[in-house]
Specification:
The complex is a heterodimer. Chain A contains 23 helices and no strands. Chain A is mainly alpha-helical. Classes of the chains: A mainly alpha, B alpha+beta. Chains A and B meet through α2, α7, α8, α9 and α10 of A and α2, α3, β7 and β9 of B.
């Protein structure tokens, strides 16, 4: 460890780890603590997934083995995949590293919405526990991590296993979307003064793009899961062929999420590598601008390549060719990244830390995974490889040898900052070499097995297929790798108990997190730094004069004064809200009344959050130091939320359009929809938007009474709209169009019903505000609360205009 | 001398071990499911494109690895330890590693797209043999509309004649893959997929399901027999004729036929002239088959008896129930079924 140039250990009086007791972690909103909790949870689930993987490897070590039953094997491979993707790599990349490093790198005191951050974590934890609790009720989910319909229909997978899977993923999806929204707003709005987008640390760039991807990719998944849950619980036929639908719909919705998801898993890893390599090569990152653009480009293209997962489904040569080209195109920005890392190494002055070793292994292994990826972009090759162990090798090189190795690099890199202790490099070496050798022993031969024709997801195989040797070899490798991971745990425990204290800047780092003590104080920065260039801390230390060393920027903390900084107060509502959500899930699989209790808790917790924070609705608090930021974070957040919601409706509308005209029996839209009635409801809803404007104006000028009355009137018009909808649904129902009757019935009720549900939520929201104003909880200075309610209301109205045009009017026009 | 000899011994032992490992390692490409053994035009096209991409992948890998190794172990830093070389980027270099991969990708994209269209002709090629493939949990059904034939798990096709497969599914999504004959396609309910290929060489080829389809996905295999045109014609003729039984000569077979007719077998299975069940595999010529139960057992009387006794034990989740027949009945039944040539 050549860098550990002894520096004075700068310690804040109290750091984020020590303040408060153990219980205070339950109500914490500190991004660093939330990051630590994400890390520990993911680590625990990684242990579980690793256990499942080892059991599978033992089963496959020999042909016709009987270590696991077919049933258990299928549960294990399903949960290994689901766990590693949703409960390990994604929460590690965004939840753990995003929380630990990103706010510090942009010089912020916390994320934009600290309580939302805690909420994301608790929903994640409860969602994960909920999914795994299916173990107690008849076994784990067993339809594969991408749960292809129609195998997931209740007819083919009876019991509650898949219910836990689908509802668990819905809960986890909420967590991901809220977390991503938070990070997006934080990065857009809370960078330190002077930190333009092109001065952001490259890790932050990657988190930004990954967050955007979460916001655009999860709505299609949510819609796909909603259909699945409806099929399983309500008897609709979104994915079964009986009513003319096709199970391929699930594949489109799932991979529309699934491929961006790959980059959601990979981008934080790219970001970590782009920090670690320059730091330990003692050179700035090569081609910063190209790297930033490549990151954005990867995110953009990744939304248009989902079809390459479906070459075997027979989409036809035109779609195949289009997806082949778009998928190949993604190799170009990825190549730029790899070459830029290599160029950063060129003539570097290396510091051979464990973190650096992991980063180097990442570059090689990720490149290997990327190169086999090019093969899967070519349908003729892909058809010989998809569904085989070659694919298994490919994505383990991308996500295991890629993302996980990068996360290990990141863990060694930020560990001193996070815990205030150094890690033992000797243990680190053992950990690295065992893991690296074990990883390649396990997964490289899987290329051979795949080319030798071994399909994935088989719990057993016959003798005489020539797969025996490499399967045994892979199994041995898996145990080597597991031993390596064991040494990681040993190194972590050793560091926490006996490790030397870490200086503020152990690696001579380049970014702002190294300018504050290790571990950081609760408020992170005593003074928000001003940034003049990229590699902001490096520039503070050395200026433009490379030879000259200006030490101890962190020393300002030493002066003895603990600055009076307003940090966000702890809150019990996030954990309460998440528990309510988990109750909703439990109710769905157990006893529906529990869901109602859950919904009540969710509602109360939301109201609690809304009115808890003393500054809510006021202009940004000066105390918190928010006045230095250009925009109101809450407005950015609201607009981001609306953007993500639009994609939810887009997926619903897309499904309606895709299934239009495929009905096997009538009546369909043309025969049954009534324009005059709906035109009236539409008019009512549009008028309500007008009243909403008046209500907001009332609150803004301090005329609470007028504002309140207009709020009631708005909600009243909303109720009339809902009444019209109830009348319409009732009429259709009596004409025989039930939810299960035909494709039109299920898509229509789902789309219009979800819109109605949004109107209902809007009515509840507005009524809550109106009643709160009686208690004087919505004074003039909190008119912002009303503004958000209004924004949501207008959004719901606009969605209705789209639905009204596409569902009601278009058919009449084309039918005329 | 002694030391030298023992060292020599050790060396040859190590060499022998390494070469044995190498042989064992390479064996994987000689298996009955290897994609490197090419027996159709479709498989050959895929393989050639694979080889082309593989070569480029190796070259690209070298362009990453060589500079990396040079930088890490050979080059010395240009400047002193604390000094920074402020290389922010070199535009010609960045342009080079953007444009060169793009050109390489274009050179891959052209054959890719050509083959993608060639593999999926809009109409069946003239003179092609049409075979309807239906995936079931967990066995395969092959129908020959041209010859009015149905056979489970074992597909016969003539060498040299183009085959046009129509893939369908009776329940969930399955994947049809006989690696040596070419790439896979999914068999999807409510949707007909196609594969076109021309088998080149007579022989026995293995196939398997490659889309996870439930509990016994691993036990859903099949065989493809590529016959010479003469053998294929003979096979068709044999299959078209009523099942030949040795009924007259063997009382066991006759007793077995009675068991079959009386047991629930008839509700699910067809034996021409005997029963018309269609849920399970057609057993008209089961005695002539090489394999049983989704090609996971070789067709011997013992295996047949084991299967009938308790299908669940052989194939978890199997839809055929254990019929509760006594050993004598099973014995007769096996004799009957094995006689159906």
């Amino acid at each position: 460890m050549a860098v550990a140039v002894p520096k004075e250990v700068v310690k804040a009086r109290e750091n984020y780890l020590t303040e408060g007791g153990l219980l205070s972690w339950l109500v914490t909103v500190d991004h660093k603590r939330i990051g630590v909790m994400y890390g520990l949870t993911s680590l625990a689930f990684m242990g579980l997934a690793g256990f499942e993987a080892l059991a599978m490897r033992i089963q496959l070590a020999q042909p016709n083995n009987h270590f696991l039953s077919a049933d258990l094997y299928n549960q294990f491979f399903t949960m290994h995949g689901t766990t590693m993707i949703f409960l390990v790599i994604m929460p590690l990349g965004l939840g753990f590293f995003g929380n630990i490093a990103m706010p510090l790198q942009i010089g912020a005191r916390d994320v934009a919405f600290p309580r939302l951050n805690a909420l994301s974590y608790w929903i994640f934890l409860f969602g994960a526990l909920f999914m795994y609790s299916s173990f107690l009720f008849g076994g784990l989910p067993d339809a594969g991590w991408f749960g292809y319909a129609n195998l997931t229909e209740r007819f083919f997978t009876p019991g509650s296993r898949e219910d836990f899977w689908a509802i668990g993923l819905l809960i986890l999806g909420i967590s991901s979307i809220l977390g991503a929204l938070n990070f997006f707003v934080t990065i857009v709005n809370m960078r330190a003064p002077g930190m333009t987008f092109m001065r952001m640390p490259i890790f932050v760039w990657n988190i930004l793009v990954a967050s955007v991807l979460v916001l655009v990719a999860f709505p299609p998944l949510t819609v796909g899961l909603v259909f699945l849950v409806m099929d399983r619980f309500l008897g609709t036929h979104f994915y079964s062929t009986v009513a003319g639908a096709t199970p391929i719909l699930w594949q489109h919705l799932f991979w529309l999420f699934g491929h961006p998801e790959v980059y959601i898993l990979a981008l934080p890893a790219f970001g970590i590598i782009s920090e670690v390599i320059p730091c330990f090569s003692r050179k700035p990152l090569f081609g910063y601008a190209a790297m930033a653009y490549a990151t954005a480009l990867i995110g953009f293209i990744s939304y248009g390549v989902w079809g390459h997962h479906m070459f075997a489904t027979g989409m036809g040569p035109i779609a195949d060719a289009a997806f082949a080209l778009s998928t190949m195109a993604i190799a170009i920005p990825t190549g730029i990244k790899v070459y830029s890392w290599v160029a950063t190494l060129w003539r570097g002055n290396f510091v051979w830390t464990t973190s650096f070793l992991y980063a180097l292994a990442f570059v090689v292994q990720f490149t290997l995974g990327g190169l086999t990826g090019v093969m899967h972009a070519q349908p003729p090759i892909d058809l010989q490889q998809t569904g085989s162990y070659f694919i298994v090798a490919h994505f383990h090189y991308v996500l295991g040898g890629g993302s996980l190795f990068a996360f290990l690099a990141g863990l060694y890199y930020w560990w001193p900052k996070m815990t205030g202790r150094m890690m033992n490099e000797k243990l680190g070496r053992i950990n690295f070499w065992l893991t690296c050798i074990g990883f390649n022993m396990t997964f490289f031969p899987m290329h051979f097995l795949g080319l030798g024709g071994m399909p994935r997801r088989i719990y057993t195989y016959g003798a005489g297929l020539h797969w025996d040797f490499w399967n045994m070899f892979c199994t041995i490798g898996a145990f080597v790798m597991a031993t390596g991971i064991l040494f990681l745990l040993i190194a972590m425990v050793e560091s926490l108990t006996r490790g030397p204290e870490a200086p503020a800047d152990p690696w001579d780092g380049r970014t702002l997190e190294w300018s504050i003590p290790s571990p950081p104080p609760v408020y992170n920065f005593a003074e928000i730094p001003h940034v003049h260039s990229k590699d902001a801390f490096w520039e503070m230390k050395y200026g433009n004069n490379p030879g000259h060393k200006v030490p101890e920027v962190a020393a300002e903390h030493e002066a003895g004064h603990v600055p009076h900084i307003h940090v966000p107060a702890p809150s019990m509502f996030p954990i309460l809200l998440a528990a309510g959500l988990a109750l909703c899930g439990i109710g769905a699989v157990a006893w529906l009344r529990i869901t109602l209790v859950g919904l009540l808790i969710v509602y109360l917790a939301i109201v609690g959050i809304g009115f808890e924070y003393p500054t809510y609705g006021e202009h940004p608090s000066k105390e918190r130091g928010d006045d230095i930021y250009p925009l109101d974070s809450r407005k950015v957040g609201m607009w981001t939320f609306i953007g993500s919601e639009s994609l939810f409706f887009a997926s619903l509308i897309g499904t309606y359009m895709a299934y239009k005209g495929r009905d096997l029996i009538g009546p369909t839209a043309k025969e049954i929809l009534e324009i005059p009635l709906t035109s009236f409801s539409t008019f009512v809803l549009l008028m309500s938007s007008l009243l909403m404007v008046l209500a907001l104006a009332g609150f803004e000028r301090g005329d609470i009474k007028a504002g309140r009355n207009w709020l009631f009137a708005t909600a009243g018009l909303g109720c009339i709209f809902l009444g019209g909808q109830a009348y319409e649904f009732n009429k259709f129902y009596h004409e025989g169009v039930t939810l299960q009757h035909n494709l039109f019935g299920q898509t229509f009720y789902t789309l219009v019903g979800f819109h109605g549900l949004h109107v209902l939520l809007g009515v509840i929201w507005l009524l809550t505000l109106a009643f709160a104003s009686f208690k004087d909880m919505v004074p003039k200075k909190r008119a912002l609360a009303v503004e958000f309610g209004g924004l949501y209301w207008h959004f719901v109205d606009i969605v209705w205009i789209v639905i009204f045009s596409l569902v009601y009017l278009m058919d009449k026009v084309t039918g005329a | 001398m002694k030391l030298k000899a023992s060292l020599g011994c050790l060396r040859s032992a190590i060499l022998a071990g390494l070469s044995a490992a190498c042989l064992a390692g390479c064996e994987v490409f000689n298996g009955p499911l290897s994609t490197f053994i090419i027996r159709s035009d479709f498989a050959r096209d895929s393989y050639r494109l694979f080889r082309y991409t593989f070569i480029w992948d190796c070259i690209i890998l070298l362009t990453v690895l060589v500079p990396m190794v040079l930088a890490l172990f050979w080059l010395t830093p240009r400047t002193g330890p604390q000094e920074q070389e402020h290389v922010e980027g070199t535009s010609w270099l960045e342009a080079a590693w953007t444009i060169t991969p793009a050109l390489i990708l274009i050179s891959m994209a052209i054959p890719t797209i050509r083959l993608t269209f060639q593999n999926q002709p809009p109409t069946p090629p003239p003179g092609a043999l049409r075979v309807r493939v239906i995936g079931h949990q967990w066995w395969w059904e092959f129908q020959y509309p041209e010859y009015h034939l149905t056979t489970p798990d074992e597909l016969h096709i003539p060498a040299g004649r183009t085959v046009y497969f129509d893939l369908e599914s009776a329940d969930v999504i399955h994947g049809f893959w006989a690696p040596q004959l070419g790439g896979k396609r999914d068999a999807i309910p409510g949707h007909v997929n196609h594969i076109v290929l021309t088998p080149e060489k007579p022989g026995e080829y293995y196939g398997e399901c490659t889309q996870y389809c439930g509990l016994s996905h691993a036990n859903m295999r099949f065989r493809v027999y590529v016959d010479t045109p003469e053998n294929f014609a003979a096979w068709v003729k044999q299959q078209q004729s009523a099942p030949a039984t040795a009924a007259g000569n063997d009382p066991k077979v006759e007793a077995g036929a009675a068991v079959f007719a009386a047991a629930p077998c008839v509700t699910c299975h067809t034996i021409e002239g005997v029963s018309k069940g269609y849920i399970g595999p057609n057993l008209s010529h089961i005695g002539s088959h090489q394999t049983l139960a989704g090609s996971i057992l070789s067709n011997t009387p013992e295996n047949m008896a084991k299967w009938i006794r308790n299908p669940e034990e052989v194939k978890p989740g199997a839809q055929m129930p254990a019929l509760g027949l006594d050993p004598v009945q099973i014995d007769y039944l096996v004799a009957y079924l094995e006689s159906l040539k």
